[in-house]
Design goal:
mainly alpha; 5 helices; elongated
Length: 134
């Protein structure tokens, strides 16, 4: 059975998204990753999910803000994927595509506003947000 290198994370640590030997984030890094989790809303829920699962144990501000961003972008990303798929329907597909673009613009703009607030060190709460992840 192969031995793992002591400084490398194990597969179970990578799956959990945390490494107990990882140092905590500095306040600047904590604010930076929290800001990026909101700015990632331009690309859907993947950036905020990655930041949440990787950095949630290393910085309290990052954990709070990436969770908020993930809770906001996850349902919208699912709706966007469904709307883009419905956009291929003949005759009415353009309506679904138009609604999808509108929702993406809302998600992108609110993510930019939230990221700007986080960059100033202020926590941001989305007005309409389903808080699935606690």
């Amino acid at each position: 059975m192969p031995q793992s290198h002591p400084s490398r994370p194990t597969a179970s640590q990578l799956m959990r998204g945390s490494d107990s030997s990882a140092p905590p984030l500095t306040p600047e890094e904590d604010r930076r990753w929290a800001t990026l989790s909101h700015f990632g809303g331009i690309a859907g829920c993947l950036p905020s999910a990655a930041i949440y699962f990787i950095f949630r144990d290393r910085g309290p501000f990052t954990a709070q803000e990436s969770r908020e961003a993930l809770n906001f972008t996850l349902p919208l990303t699912v709706v966007l994927v469904v709307l883009f798929a419905l956009g291929y329907l003949p005759a009415v597909g353009w309506i679904f595509s138009l609604v999808a673009v509108f929702l993406w613009a809302i998600m992108a703009i609110t993510g930019l506003v939230a990221g700007a607030e986080c960059n100033k060190g202020r926590p941001y709460r989305y007005r309409l947000n389903f808080r699935f992840i606690q």
